[in-house]
Amino acid sequence: MKNYIIRRLLQMIPVFVGIIFILFVLLEMSPGTPVSHMMNPKMTVEQKQELLTKMGLDKPWYERFITWFKEAAQGNLGQSVKHKKPVTDVIKDFIGPTLLLSLTSLIFAVLIGIPIGILSATKQYSFADNALTVFSLIGISLPAFFFALLLLKYLAVDIQIFPLFGLQNATLRTNSAFVKFMDIAWHLVLPTLVLGLSQAATFMRYTRSSMLEVIRQDYIRTARSKGLKEKVVIYKHALRNAMIPIVTLLAFSIPGLLSGAVMTETIFALPGLGKTSVDASMTKNIPLILGINAMLAMLVLLSTLIGDIMYAVVDPRVRYD
Questions:
Q1: Inter-residue contact 237 to 219 (CB < 8 Å)
Q2: Residue 299 — φ and ψ, nearest 5°?
Q3: 3-state SS assignment for residue 284
Q4: Cα diameter, the chain
Q5: Strand, coil or helix: 277
Q6: 86-92-97 Cα angle (round to 5)
Q7: Looking at the predicted structure, is the pLDDT value of residue 182 above 80?
Q8: What is the per-residue burial (b if ≥16 Cβ within 10 Å, else e) of 234-248?
Q9: What pLDDT digit, counting tens, does each position of 147-163 carry?
Q10: Which of 41, 101, 262, 321 is most buried per CB count within 10 Å?
Q11: Rounded to the nearest 5 degrees, what angle is found at the Cα of 30, between the Cα atoms of 26 and 35?
């Protein structure tokens, strides 16, 4: 296992470099510059050139790419043009709400998706199975932004049960940690439903398909013929062997939720990394865009490695050495 992990980590290096290179080229090809919004129309050509030189944008793109990568290898992701501070500090400032939203959405998806997937598989072709299948199809097909707007319209504007936007009530004045926690939790209900619904539906479909394949195996019939209780057969014997595709999905869900938070945070005006990345794209804040996407790329690569390692944990038959 140790040799496998080292080999995979070494393989990640060229993949990561390739991802950042493609992103850098795409940003370079897009119109405008990171300082376009900073330039005064009355500025002279010399003043504009001086500003570009100050920002290091007068050099060829490949030189800037090499320079950025050398600095990134030392932990320096550059300076955010808008925030006037290091990119690492900007990420630290805004990643908290994004991680909180992603974590609550993932917990919601797992707690809802996997149990109803098991129920749907064990009650195949029943009314419950058909109803849950319809639910999963709706969850997968419904656009997140449309679902978010519906929730805001009916539950935040018409009925006014939930807050319209933000992560905290700006008018709340209390020193109680519990009250603050409940306020944040209440603000996260709608964003969590939006971000977690499609994931829950996906978990349900994967779990149902995997369980249906496993419960038809001969060893499951043998377990039942021995007189074992149905719960023992399903949750001890069948579920563990059905977990491999679910582990794969779970490994990819973490970066997927962080990426999906972009739209959700923008609609609900949450002060997270998703909304920050949208703002960075609008102003072509290249250092911040590169820093955020470099973090996401590394998270995806590490998630695939963790998923492979979890295979061996779930299924003892899997060996990498």
A1: yes
A2: -65, -40
A3: coil
A4: 87
A5: helix
A6: 140
A7: yes
A8: beebbbebbbbebbb
A9: 999 999 999 988 889 98
A10: 101
A11: 115
Q: Which tokens sit at 136?
A: 């999963």
Q: Using one digit for the tens of pLDDT, what is the confidence trace for 218-244?
A: 888 888 888 888 888 888 888 878 887
The Cα 200–Cα 131 span in angstroms is 15
pLDDT tens digits, one per residue of 31-73 = 766 666 666 666 666 766 776 677 667 778 788 888 888 888 8
Task: Give how far the C-alpha of residue 272 lies from the chain's centroid of Cα atoms, to the nearest Å.
Answer: 12
d(CA 23, CA 42): 33
For residue 283 the two structure tokens come to 């102003």
Torsion of CA 13, 16, 20, 23, to 10 degrees: 150
Q: What is the pLDDT of residue 40?
A: 62
* pLDDT bucket at 188, cuts 50 / 70 / 90: very high
Distance CA 296, CA 239 (A): 31
Residues 80 and 285: beta-carbon distance below 8 Å: yes
CA distance 110 to 104: 10
Contacts for 256 with CB less than 8 Å, ≥ 6 apart: 199
Pair 207, 117: CB distance under 8 Å? yes
253: Cβ contacts below 8 Å, ≥ 6 apart: 106, 109, 199
Name the percent of the chain in helix, strand, coil, to the closest 5: 75, 0, 25
- Cβ atoms of residues 193 and 151 within 8 Å: yes
Q: Is 284 left (phi over 0), alpha (psi -120 to 50) or beta?
A: left
Q: Which amino acid is at 271?
A: P
**Structure token pair of residue 39:** 């330039």
d(CA 85, CA 11): 33
Three-class DSSP category at 172: coil
* Inter-residue contact 270 to 191 (CB < 8 Å): yes
